[in-house]
């Protein structure tokens, strides 16, 4: 299929593919649990050792190892008892425009050695966690995301071939025009497929259906627009394809856990979803967190 014939999507770029608002350095005493909110999480072990519990298994993360975990995966990171303290870098890294299916958790062994330049950036020039998304933050996100993806492909042979052209065309069109009243049927017509055929190709390529990807793209654009305080929520609702402010607010709140206006205003709820610092929340004894892993991490969001 010639993607250039699918409307005007042939000239549209899907880059940058990754989004990140900030990163933070964390110190965890032996046995303490990293208490991150249930948002996409990237972590790099600087010193010591961590135990990652996710996807019904536990594995150790040594110094230099990195892991990427999406918002839908229940997980727990615990500092090893064999070290007095463990240090790591954490960031709220997410694939902003879905272009490929990645495992979660995605563990890259020896990330620090394999990607020395990225390692130097995140250890010597960390971003402030509370900063607004900027081009500088986006460049960090793209560097880290590209390094993680490349390493995964090298280790697992994850790149089975070129991206699905139909999926790429639809994602590009929706990303370019999020305000349009998209339906799954309309997306399927764009690439001359049936609704069911398009759904199967999306699930095979990205691990989620067209409607879920549409929501992800619209929410990403909403977050970008909300960063500008001069834009009213009513305008943003229309700009991302919702017929009313109430419908947009419900969708945004369901996706992020806070309303659009609360997202742009300083508040503990907004900071928690963005991954900003919350005193006393970085590390706590494992016993205090037992029984809360499912409730805190397993939020099968429509992301």
UniProtKB/TrEMBL annotation:
**Entry's Gene Ontology molecular function annotations:** DNA-binding transcription factor activity; sequence-specific DNA binding
Read off the Pfam families from this record: HTH_18 (PF12833)
Write out the ranges of the annotated region (Disordered). Answer: 259-303
The chain's coiled-coil residues are none
Gene3D superfamilies xref list: Homeodomain-like, Jelly Rolls
> ATP-binding among the record's keywords?
no
Q: What is this protein called?
A: AraC-like DNA-binding protein
Basic and acidic residues bias: where? 267-293
Tree of life domain:
Bacteria
PROSITE patterns in alphabetical order? HTH_ARAC_FAMILY_1 (PS00041), HTH_ARAC_FAMILY_2 (PS01124)
Alphabetic keyword roster: DNA-binding, Transcription, Transcription regulation
Where do the HTH araC/xylS-type domain residues begin and end? 168-266
| Keyword Phosphoprotein in record | no
């Amino acid at each position: 299929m010639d993607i250039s014939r699918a409307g005007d999507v042939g000239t549209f770029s899907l880059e940058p593919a990754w989004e990140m608002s900030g990163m933070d350095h964390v110190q965890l005493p032996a046995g303490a649990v990293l208490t991150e909110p249930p948002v996409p999480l990237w972590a790099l072990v600087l010193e010591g050792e961590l135990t990652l519990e996710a996807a019904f298994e536990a594995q150790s993360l040594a110094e230099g190892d990195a892991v990427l975990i999406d918002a839908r995966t229940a997980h727990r990171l615990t500092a090893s008892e064999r070290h007095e303290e463990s240090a790591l870098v954490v960031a709220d890294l997410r694939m902003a425009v879905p272009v490929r299916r990645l495992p979660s958790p995605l563990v890259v062994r020896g990330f620090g050695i394999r990607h020395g330049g990225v390692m130097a950036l995140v250890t010597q020039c960390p971003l402030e966690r509370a900063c607004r998304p900027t081009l500088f933050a986006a460049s960090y996100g793209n560097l880290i995301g590209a390094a993680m993806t490349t390493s995964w492909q090298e280790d697992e042979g994850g790149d089975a071939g070129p991206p699905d052209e139909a999926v790429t065309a639809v994602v590009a069109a929706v990303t370019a025009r999020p305000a349009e009243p998209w339906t799954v049927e309309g997306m399927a017509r764009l690439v001359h497929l049936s609704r069911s055929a398009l759904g199967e190709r999306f699930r095979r390529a990205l691990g989620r259906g067209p409607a879920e990807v549409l929501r992800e793209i619209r929410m990403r654009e909403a977050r970008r627009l909300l960063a500008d305080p001069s834009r009213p929520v009513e305008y943003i609702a229309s700009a991302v394809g919702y017929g009313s402010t109430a419908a947009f607010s419900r969708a945004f709140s369901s996706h992020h856990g806070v309303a659009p206006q609360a997202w742009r205003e300083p508040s503990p709820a907004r900071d928690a979803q963005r991954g900003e610092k919350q005193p006393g929340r970085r590390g706590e004894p494992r016993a205090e967190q037992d029984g809360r892993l499912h409730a805190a991490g397993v939020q099968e969001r429509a992301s």
